[in-house]
Amino acid sequence: MHELGVTENIVNVALAKAREAQASKVIQINLVIGELSGFVPDCIQFYFDSLSKDTIVEGAVLHFESVSTQLRCRNCSAIFHPEDTQWSCPECQGQSVEISKGREFYIDSLEVE
Amino acid sequence: MKKIEVIQNVLEANETIAKRNQQLLDKHKVFAINIMSAPGAGKTSLILHTMSRLKGKLNIAVIEGDVASTVDAEKVQSEAKAVVQINTRNMPESCSLMAAMIELALKELPLDGIDLLLIENVGNLICPSEFILGEHKRVVISSLPEGDDKPVKYPLIFIDADAVIINKMDLLPHVDFDIAAFRRSVAGLNPKAEVFQLSCKTGEGIENWCSWVLEQVETNATKR
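Predict the joint structure of the above. Result:
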């Protein structure tokens, strides 16, 4: 369980951005989270419910858009989604890869009124 | 209803503190290594060997991160210039050290008298990969009884490592650990990582590791 700190950060950012926009209520927070990220949306939701109490983000919907893992083969440059745990390249069977997508975790946007 | 663009990294709060930690360390010429592994892989043993081997060459301080107890801090006490024990059980989150915990610990260390800070993270191969602390190098230890598939199962921690240590080499005749396969997996994920094979039990290979540490500290010192 290490979602408390990041949830605090989500609430703080949402509050600051909403105030900046002179919004009276945050309806939805759109988050983008990679498949490889070690953070669990359900845990974030759990902390969010208590951290957002009595603020203008209370009751906002946390919308998680998942980004699937995308790897790049260092050998033949093929871009692929891993089909096995070995992360082997489907083109050349190479096993030297780098992650091009799947580790991101950011607040994309807010919907406010 | 109105939409506001944000695009902000959720981990930014931790990363900002980590950056501040590194600036403080750099100001005092302290080189920091974050040592990560599963529980029981040999983090404390490696720290003990590193301190005894580099005695007289470097002043070493240790930050011990554990869910509970001061067992590890007591073990390293006599060799270290200074030790701070962090018990994450008392923190809101306990599965990994985080930059804010290091920021507090740094306040308790006599930074001017220290060349090398060894940070022993909480035994865990998952959570510590998400949190940078302000360290200069990240090291992961895998030990033979854990099996050779750890880089495949926990790729992130290996991808970000500057060095990977294979510990408990003395157990090789007794366990099914394919060293070549392990090294291939690590090289596939992270071709730049240095890999060391050693045994904290027999002392085999410790010298190579310590030479690397010394070289890193010296290279970093000349850069500043």
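Chain A is about 25% helix and 30% strand.
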